[in-house]
Specification:
By secondary structure, this protein is α+β, with helices and mostly antiparallel strands. Helix content is about 25%, strand content about 30%. The protein folds into 2 domains: about 5-80, Alpha-Beta Plaits, CATH 3.30.70; about 85-135, no CATH class. It has 3 helices and 7 strands, in the order E-H-E-E-H-E-E-E-E-H. A hairpin with a 4-residue loop joins strand 6 (about 105-110) and strand 7.
Length: about 140
């Protein structure tokens, strides 16, 4: 089990000459805390490529997430995966005051607008989603 997972999906024709694994390799090579879990073709109908990264620290997770989020490539990024032990949710700073039990979460600011709110269970994620307005998520 990894502390965090990032699942990255993209259409093969969006990657020019690179494979998804090649494109994500710098993130893996730059940190001891990041490893590939899988690279598979996720859906035969859509032909999407998918790779899951297992990440062992919040700093490495935040760096990798920010790099992929800000990338020119049209990645779809899933913040949880099959081996994740913790569940980050991006929340706009202005909505953090809506969280009724802040001590139940860990917070990691990734820029001047968004903080990753990290839950240790799916139940806490659901509570967070009920408390924070949908436009403030992400």
């Amino acid at each position: 089990m990894a502390e965090f997972n990032l699942t990255v999906t993209i259409a093969p024709d969006e990657l020019e000459a690179d494979s998804l694994k090649t494109r994500l390799s710098p993130s893996v090579e730059d940190s001891e805390d990041v490893q590939f879990r899988t690279e598979t073709q996720s859906d035969s109908d859509s032909g999407q490529l998918e790779a899951t990264l297992e990440i062992e620290s919040i700093d490495s997770f935040a760096d990798t997430y920010t790099d992929l989020r800000d990338s020119e490539e049209p990645f779809e990024i899933g913040l949880w995966g099959p081996t994740a032990e913790r569940f980050p949710v991006p929340v706009q700073h202005y909505a953090l005051q809506q969280i009724s039990m802040p001590d139940a979460y860990e917070f990691h600011a990734i820029d001047n607008k968004v903080t990753l709110v990290i839950a240790d269970s799916q139940q806490l994620v659901q509570q967070l989603r009920q408390e924070v307005p949908p436009p403030a998520l992400g």
